[in-house]
Design goal:
15 strands, seven-stranded mixed sheet, 366 residues, Aspartate Aminotransferase, domain 2, alpha/beta, Aspartate Aminotransferase, domain 1, binds pyridoxal-5'-phosphate, four-stranded antiparallel sheet
Length: 366
């Protein structure tokens, strides 16, 4: 049988290495701590869960195709105009719409060495060419991006803070990046972890979007809001970008439960604050403990840590550590596909898991 005699995907599709989510189980282990997907150990706001339950009578009707209740809750709590907000089935869906709307075969999208892999997948899915540029000290390098811009460049994708490094670009650097880009290049700022950042020199990107025609900020309910299962993301963008994406968008891309629970979640500021404070405490604790064990940790402002293992000791590699930890129920994320074959990404978890993973690593390194 030859592949000429059957349908073939368009160019680019078969170049895609499918996105592989963090594993969630450890075969044969009674108690499993999933520390591989940056989910919130505090879960969702009780108000969000209540709103989710209250949706049941609406399940026989189509949802509101404009997701008005959610867009208004976002607009009110963030001080934004709802006309500049569009919601997605996770922010991943919005990234896919942006690539479909702005990238064609022959176009280039710039992504970074250790950047979130979805950007590459979706650029290829649009038939365009991902151009990967180096990072410096595991952080996005603005000069490297600007040097890679060509007349074919149509978009630049950065996650700020980035996953899986946890590092961030100070806002002045983001501003410098924007200032160096042609006005026709779309700068996509993926701020999935922005709520966790407690740094004076950080901004998610609202100002830059408001003041320009070529910047988009994406956000998610999957991290600090603790609702990854409902698939809710949003973007803040100029009206002409919203208009373009509206033409591609599935008319009912958010379901009724996502709309109602999302609105309740973002209005519960106390829950967000509690989750952020919890994260700050345990992120610091984990970083100190890991460092004390002699492991290098990339400085993170998000809800996870990139932990590096000994290059020179094959018995103490990330692969061996992963197997050891998994056997004890601590499931971390391997990050080989992100250019870190000898590191693991650890999500800040419940207290018991944080203490347990450090105890297990202490044993492993003996
Ligand atoms: C988790 C994550 C997201 C969120 O994706 P959703 O589709 O909203 O669940 C987006 N960007 C990055 C970098 C992430 O790590």
């Amino acid at each position: 049988m030859t592949s000429l005699n059957r349908p073939r995907p368009k160019p680019g599709v078969l170049d895609i290495a499918a996105y592989v989510p963090g594993k969630g189980s450890a075969p044969g282990v009674a108690k499993v701590y999933k520390l591989s997907a940056n989910e919130s150990p505090l879960g969702a706001s009780p108000h969000a869960i209540e709103a989710y339950r209250a949706v049941e009578p609406q399940l026989t009707l189509y949802p509101d195709g404009q997701a008005k209740a959610l867009r208004e809750a976002i607009a009110e709590t963030q001080g934004l105009n709802p006309a500049n907000i569009l919601c997605g089935n996770g922010s991943g869906e919005l990234l896919s719409y942006l690539t479909q709307a702005y990238l064609a075969p022959g176009d280039e999208a710039i992504i970074t060495e250790h950047g979130f892999l979805l950007y590459k997948v979706q650029t290829l899915a649009a038939g365009a060419t991902p151009v990967t540029v180096r990072e410096t000290n595991e952080r996005v390098d603005v000069d490297a991006i600007l040097e890679a811009v060509t007349s074919r460049t149509k978009a630049v994708f950065i996650a700020n803070p980035n996953n899986p490094t946890g590092t961030y670009l100070p806002f002045e650097e983001v501003r410098r990046l924007h200032a160096g880009l042609p006005k026709t290049v779309l700068l996509v700022l993926d701020a999935a972890y922005s709520e966790y950042v407690r740094r004076n020199d950080y901004e998610a990107g609202v100002e830059l979007v408001s003041a320009n025609e070529n910047v988009v900020m994406t956000r998610t309910f999957s991290k600090v809001h603790g609702l990854p299962g409902l698939r809710i993301g949003w973007m803040y963008a100029p009206v002409h970008v919203i208009d373009a994406v509206e033409r591609l968008r599935g008319p009912f891309n958010l379901n009724s439960a996502a709309i109602e629970a999302g609105a309740a979640a973002i209005r519960d500021r106390a829950h967000v604050e509690k989750s952020v404070a919890y994260n700050a405490q345990w992120l610091g604790w984990l970083e100190a403990e890991l460092t004390a064990l002699g492991l290098r940790v990339t400085p993170s402002v998000a809800n996870f840590l990139l932990v590096h293992f000994d290059q020179n000791d094959p018995e103490k590699s990330a692969e061996k550590a992963d197997a050891y930890l998994t056997a004890q129920g601590y499931v971390l994320r391997r990050v080989t596909a992100y250019g870190f074959p000898n590191a693991l990404r650890l999500t800040v978890g419940p207290e018991e898991a944080n203490r347990g993973v450090i105890a297990a690593l202490t044993e492993f390194l003996k």
